[in-house]
Design goal:
single chain; about 725 residues; alpha/beta; 7-stranded mixed β-sheet; 28 helices; about 65% helix; about 5% strand
């Protein structure tokens, strides 16, 4: 496959006035923040000034600034979608005529102990969609496994072979499992690029739950060819396939609000955009040259390996004058979302640690100012939780002190900016804050109303409006829980408590009541205690805080009920939270659903013994041959030779572990030892022979039971 070619003739985008756009955007946000903060300071001045009031004002300014930036994204995005803009990557229609006959692109699917059938069903849907474009020959697919579960490892290999057999895709879909998980996902991608990267001009990163339209993949390659200075193009994945009530509300919000927010983000970011880690195409050579991540100083969790690698990799590309764009108007990019509040919080915990690490990256030499801004906004996305909690605590403290001392408001004088009563003044600021928060949602509905085709894709304006109301009520109850979770995550990281690398729960049946009680009892008790305190302190204050307290007190039933699929199905039957992909499913998602149903009907039966993957890889001659052939191919690659040597694969130690495995069974070997045995092709051949040739009494009872099970399945 070709790796280089002469740059095509390109019609360049209009000259970018990024500095002016940044100035206009953030001046508007800061001006709004300044005006409302001055009004809030005037409200505080009605009583004696104090340190606590100064702290409250500073917290208000920071929090309202974040809200104002979000509001400006909605306003500017709405304006761009309404009046159009030349400053977008897909403006040039000439890119569709680009010739990609000499271009090679790798589509990679990193996986880590995932639901194998779901991940491969998504790959199959993407493969079939790409094949329908007639451009399949220019793409190769790679499954990059970091799985540490031996059963998952063997299942991945078996289903990979079934995939290439069913699709006639030998030489188009490759499977590779690393021996060492160093670097997690970013290390997995780096390992692939070191071994295979120079064969491909571009590579496209997918997640285990990603699905991509074939035409979108082709368009991304053509866009890269049309713009030789672009190093990365990030699509905006649409959330799909949600079944629970929580998932469907998240999905609805993503599909309705995201277009104006991302258009607003593109207004000031433009060619210095960001990377979200998946569903993005990257130019291979500059990525390999400039995006090898450094290790952060200090101890984990904030030091060491960078978890949220995507933001940093985009910043490193931009530092070397490669462009990064959001293709926000390019459809056909999909992903899934957690189905419950607890699963969503677990994902947030990992992202929180990664984003907090960006606080150290902010000071790296040579980064562009806009890249630092992306990193800073990512950090404050999680710091907002503890800041909001600090604001509420400080406010309640001031009210409690006010009641305790019996102080009254200062009489209204000319120095006040707003000549209203204290209650009316506070209500005015509250209304302004609510308008700023809600305005992007109203603008999204207006954008929907002016576009008949898109309006119909959401089931009509009435149903979409009802969905916005329902989603807003839920978000109001969910926000206090997010605040408490994020506060806990931030302080855990500051105290040196990190997170492990766990598999995402992508397809839960619903949160059990007892599990919800274990996870939410603290939230409930905090809500009850705070409610009691506020009621005793000042009943009027209690009613003002009702939305916050209700979210905490109702956290257990809210978490359980919104995770239920039958409630999600009921909402869909009523026409609530509909999305374009539900009303008119694209071919890729229909293929995914069809394959998922086939997998449910023909999937593997529940294992009769523990460690079924190990038994299959040793006893089944078919699977043993597939497994051994993949190991042999890997050992022939010089890039992996050092890893084999470091882990001791191929040595006498592993042969001894194999003998122990036969004599004692897998329960007496650690997970690491089992993986070492599975990684040695010589020992795996020997184990297959010995397991069938040895007398039954010389084998561990587990092996005798496994052989009986296998014999029943065959005969």
């Amino acid at each position: 496959m070709a790796t280089t070619s002469s740059p095509p003739q390109v019609t360049h985008l209009p000259r970018i006035q990024r500095g002016w756009r940044l100035f206009v955007f953030y001046t508007c946000a800061l001006a709004l923040t300044g005006v409302v903060s001055l009004m809030f300071a005037d409200l505080l001045w009605r009583s004696e000034w104090s340190i606590s009031r100064a702290i409250l004002l500073v917290l208000f300014i920071v929090l309202f600034a974040l809200v104002s930036i979000g509001c400006m994204h909605g306003i500017f995005g709405f304006m761009l979608l309404t009046f159009g803009t030349r400053q977008r990557l897909t403006k040039l229609k000439e890119y569709k005529g680009q010739d990609i006959s000499d271009v090679s692109t790798a589509i990679i699917f990193p996986v880590y102990n995932e639901d194998v059938m779901r991940a491969y069903a998504g790959l199959r849907a993407t493969f079939e969609s790409l094949k329908a474009t007639g451009q399949l020959e220019h793409f190769d697919f790679f499954i990059l496994s970091d799985s540490t579960d031996s059963d998952k490892w063997v299942e991945e290999e078996r289903r990979w072979y079934e995939l290439i057999r069913d699709l006639n895709a030998l030489g188009k879909i490759y499977y590779r499992r690393r021996l060492d998980n160093e670097g997690r996902k970013s290390g997995n991608v780096r390992d692939f690029l070191n071994a295979w990267g120079r064969r491909y001009r571009y590579f496209l990163v997918c997640d285990a739950d990603s699905v991509m339209r074939g035409r979108t993949l082709v368009d991304l390659v053509k866009l890269m060819e049309a713009h030789p200075t672009v190093g990365l193009i990030q699509t905006v994945p649409a959330l799909v396939n949600a079944e629970s009530l929580f998932g469907r509300m998240q999905q609805f919000a993503n599909r309705l609000y995201a277009p104006i927010f991302i258009a607003g983000l593109n207004y000031w970011a433009m060619d210095v955009g960001n990377y979200w880690g998946h569903n993005a195409i990257i130019r291979t050579e500059p990525f390999m040259q400039f995006c090898d991540l450094p290790r952060l100083p200090g101890r984990r969790p904030l030091g060491g390996q960078i978890l949220s690698h995507d933001f940093v990799e985009a910043a490193l590309l931009v530092r070397e004058n490669w462009e990064a764009w959001f293709a926000y108007d390019l459809e056909g990019s999909y992903e899934e979302t957690p189905q419950g509040m607890i699963e969503n919080a677990q994902r947030d915990r990992r992202w929180c640690q990664g984003n907090l690490q960006h606080g150290l990256v902010l000071f790296a030499r040579g980064l562009r100012g806009v890249s630092r801004l992306h990193l800073l906004l990512g950090v404050f996305g999680y710091l907002a939780g503890p800041l909001w909690l600090a604001f509420l605590i400080t406010f309640v403290w001031i009210r409690a002190y006010h009641q305790y001392t019996g102080l009254s408001d200062l009489p209204l004088v000319r120095a006040h900016l707003i000549h209203l009563s204290g209650r009316a003044h506070a209500l005015l600021i509250f209304v302004i804050c609510m308008v700023v928060i809600m305005l992007p949602k109203f603008l999204a509905l207006i954008d929907l109303a002016r576009n008949p085709e898109r309006r119909n894709a959401f089931g009509g304006l009435g149903r979409a409006t009802a969905g916005v109301v329902g989603e807003t009520v839920f978000s109001t109850l969910h926000a206090p829980l997010q605040m408490l979770w994020h506060t806990r995550f931030v302080f855990a990281n500051l105290m040196g408590i990190g997170v492990g690398w766990s598999t995402q729960q992508r397809d839960a049946d619903g949160t059990p009541w007892w599990y919800a009680i274990q996870r939410h009892w603290g939230h409930t008790m905090i809500g009850l205690a705070c409610g009691y305190f506020m009621w005793r302190l000042e009943p009027e204050l209690f009613w003002w805080f009702t939305p916050v307290l209700a979210g905490m007190v109702l956290s257990i039933p809210l978490s359980v009920l919104t995770s239920r699929r039958h409630l999600g199905a009921r909402a869909r039957a009523l026409g609530m939270f509909l999305t374009p992909e539900e009303i008119a499913p694209p071919a890729e998602l229909m293929s995914l659903r069809a394959q998922t149903k086939i997998n449910e009907l023909t999937g593997d039966p529940p294992p009769g013994l523990p460690h079924p993957g190990l038994a299959e890889a040793v006893l089944d001659p078919y699977m043993n041959a597939i497994h051994v052939s993949l190991l042999r191919e890997k050992q022939l690659n010089p890039a992996y030779a050092e890893q084999f040597a470091q882990l001791g694969v191929g040595g006498e130690q592993v042969l001894k572990l194999g003998e122990r495995l036969l004599m004692e069974g897998p329960d007496n070997l650690s997970d690491t030892d089992q993986l070492l045995v599975l990684a040695d092709q010589r020992v795996m051949v020997w184990l297959h022979q010995q397991a069938w040739l040895r007398a039954g009494e010389t084998l561990a009872p587990w092996w005798r039971a496994a052989i009986q099970n296998f014999s029943r399945e065959i005969f």
